[in-house]
Specification:
By secondary structure, the chain is α/β, with parallel strands linked by helices. The protein has two domains: about 90 residues, no CATH class; about 120 residues, no CATH class. Strand 2 and strand 3 form a beta hairpin. Helix 2 runs antiparallel to helix 4 and helix 6 packs antiparallel against helix 7.
């Protein structure tokens, strides 16, 4: 099979560009370790030069200026490696920040488009039809996550089976308790301007999720508004699907 060099080059280039933050970070860390090793190796040579300088000036005490002037060349490789390592780490951080900014912008655009689409759909469909659509979506979410094979979190706030549409987790609680949590969190948002998804989950009695501190709600995008749909889970138990009319967003700390 004939493989074109240009194709290989493009594939390698694409991989390097995609993983450039990780590559730069790895190079930076390796460089820092190498600079330490080089400094250790340079020290005996520097000590030897200092001994020779002391004999030359016939004095066991050298000034700081004499010490630097005598030994600085020994540490050129160390300094060079250290500077390059710092540059790699700074470059990695800049690329990551730029990509995160682009991701936030793309998310905001997608969220805006979705809201406009949802508003138009609401205008075209009756309230009954909209409820049916929401219930169908909730049913698909429940069917996609097996209650029989999933961990069911016990919150200590009730025995009704719930399914959280955002995190895809089952838990037991009480519908009035969930509504109270929503009201309490909305009051907190009114005072603090924004709340994270993990803060909301904690009030429900659920453990945090990895991305829970990066997602949340703010006062500008609207208070948390939930929707409850009743389904039958695959373990044949009635299940209340907890869905959000105002979903948690990525840039919730950014106020308008």
């Amino acid at each position: 099979m004939h493989v074109k060099f240009n194709d290989i080059f493009k594939a390698v280039k694409s991989t390097v560009v995609t993983h450039s933050p990780e590559i730069l970070t790895a190079i930076g860390i390796t460089g820092m370790i190498s600079s330490t090793v080089l400094a250790v190796k340079a020290t005996p040579k520097a000590m030897k030069l200092l001994d020779e300088k002391k004999k030359e000036v016939k004095d066991d005490t050298l000034t700081k200026k004499e010490v630097i002037k005598t030994t600085w060349k020994c540490y050129i490789p160390t300094a060079t490696t250290c500077v390059l390592s710092v540059a790699c780490l700074v470059g990695s951080t800049k690329i990551s920040l730029k990509r995160n900014a682009a991701l936030a912008a793309a998310y905001a655009l997608s969220d805006s488009t979705f809201k406009a689409y949802k508003e138009k759909v609401s205008e075209k469909l009756s309230e009954k039809k909209m409820t049916e659509v929401k219930d169908e979506v909730a049913k698909e979410k429940v069917n996609a996550t097996s209650a029989s094979n999933s961990e069911i979190f016990i919150t200590g706030n009730g025995s009704a089976l719930f399914y959280d549409a955002v995190t895809g987790r089952y838990f037991r609680s009480d519908i009035e308790k969930v509504r109270k949590v929503v009201n309490d969190i909305n009051r907190q948002m009114r005072d603090e301007m924004f709340v994270s998804l993990n803060e909301f989950l904690s009030e429900l009695g659920l453990p945090p999720v990895k991305i829970g501190d990066e997602l949340g709600w703010n006062i500008d995008s609207g208070y948390i508004d939930t929707n409850f749909s009743t389904m039958i889970a695959d373990n044949n138990q009635p299940c209340i699907v907890l869905d959000y009319l105002v979903e948690p967003r990525f840039d919730y700390r950014r106020l308008m």
